[in-house]
Specification:
Blueprint (H helix, E strand, L loop, with lengths): L2 E14 L5 E11 L6 H5 L10 E4 L2 E16 L9 E9 L20 E13 L18 E16 L4 H4 L19 E5 L2 E6 L3 E12 L21
Antiparallel strand pairs: 1-2, 2-5, 3-4, 4-5, 6-7, 7-10, 8-10, 9-10
């Protein structure tokens, strides 16, 4: 019970839209070795183009397009009889797509993790100037000032079969101990880790967890606070 041969492509077409994106459509004749084989068997065959394959057929070589998850299967022959012959139609395109072209629809655990980031503008308090020297009044009293600061944040979302709560919950509000993403130690903090239980395929469960990181290039260590007190000695 398998696909025995595939012939094609034929009925090849190319459509270029107003934005210049290219979409190829191609058909293949597929033959199975059993009359009871259906579209699921045909669609799983590695003999037809696979998701992520480039358009390289004959003298054509367009490596900037990839085979999409789109697949249309139709039996060939009389509609009232079983058949071993099928028509498989596939699509190749270079239109942007947020999905990983190497993954198929259906199983959320095969989805690649999603990574995004942004910057938050705000202010921070400091006792020092740009050279690291304490800011002081003319009477040599240290003063605290505010400066503009844009902090980066990174959000990573994953679908997993096991939540791993006992592993990552102690890490919330802790910082990196070694270099991470090119940033030195103690500059990246895991600030939150929300999660949600979800279901697919007749009640099978999985977990979607999100890790929210804050990035402070000046480290999250508390800065030294100068002693602002004054002692009166010998009436001075």
């Amino acid at each position: 019970m398998a696909v025995s041969s595939v012939r094609g492509p034929y009925n090849v077409s190319l459509d270029i839209d107003d934005q210049g994106f290219r979409t190829y459509m191609a058909s293949y004749k597929v033959e199975t070795d059993d009359y009871d084989d259906g579209p699921e068997t045909v669609g799983q065959s590695s003999l037809i183009p696979q998701i992520g394959d480039a358009w390289t057929f004959g003298n054509d070589n367009d490596t900037w397009v990839w085979c999409t998850p789109y697949l249309k299967l139709e039996p060939l022959g009389r509609k009232d009889e079983k058949t071993k012959h099928w028509k498989a139609e596939v699509k190749f395109t270079n239109k942007p797509n947020n999905r990983n072209p190497g993954q198929s629809n259906g199983n959320p655990l095969l989805e690649p993790q999603k990574i995004k980031g942004t910057f938050t503008n705000g202010t921070t308090k400091t006792w020092t100037d740009r050279t690291g020297a304490f800011v002081q009044t003319t009477s040599f009293e240290p003063i605290q000032t505010e400066i503009d600061q844009a902090l980066a944040s990174v959000v990573i979302t994953q679908n997993v079969s096991s939540l791993g709560l006992s592993t990552f919950s102690p890490m919330v509000n802790t910082v990196n101990s070694t270099t991470l993403w090119g940033m030195p130690a103690r500059t990246i903090k895991l600030s939150n880790a929300p999660w949600e239980r979800k279901y697919y395929i007749s009640g099978s469960k999985y977990y979607q967890r999100t890790f929210e990181f804050e990035v402070n290039p000046n480290t999250f260590d508390r800065a030294d606070i100068p002693n602002k007190g004054k002692n009166m000695i010998n009436g001075s």
